[in-house]
Amino acid sequence: MEPILLEEHGRRLQRKLKNNSYLCIITKFNKMKNLKKTELEKLQNLNSDFVNLKTQLGDLELQKHLVIEKVQFVRSEFAKIEKELVDKYGEDTTINLQTGEIKEKEKE
Questions:
Q1: Does pTM surpass 0.85?
Q2: Cα–Cα–Cα angle for 97, 103, 87, nearest 5°?
Q3: What are phi and psi of 62, to 5 degrees?
Q4: pLDDT (tens digit per residue) in 46-92
Q5: pLDDT of residue 28
Q6: What confidence tier does 12 reach under pLDDT thresholds 50, 70, 90?
Q7: From the CB of residue 98, how many other CB atoms can be counted at a distance below 10 Å?
Q8: DSSP sequence for the chain
């Protein structure tokens, strides 16, 4: 049953239903309040900064994972070459990474 608005009395609305009964709805009419322009702008700027910082954190986290993957790849490649050189020159040798010179390890 669709109510029919009969009268409005500030805070009280009376509606007459088709069966002639009344439905009273108590409402509270509050005047809408707004923030001052400077307050709103400050909140909007802080929210924007927060969103930007969260995005930067996400980007940094992605970069971190990419760097970790690259480090793991370099370690893996280093280990492969190290094994090849150990097989070729023996376990008792050291290689000077500056000059490429191969020496026998000094015995203690």
A1: no
A2: 80
A3: -65, -45
A4: 999 999 999 999 999 999 999 999 999 999 999 999 999 999 999 88
A5: 54
A6: very low
A7: 6
A8: ---EEEEEETTEEEEE-TTS-EEEEE---PPP----HHHHHHHHHHHHHHHHHHHHHHHHHHHHHHHHHHHHHHHHHHHHHHHHHHHHH-TTEEE-TTT--EEEPPP-
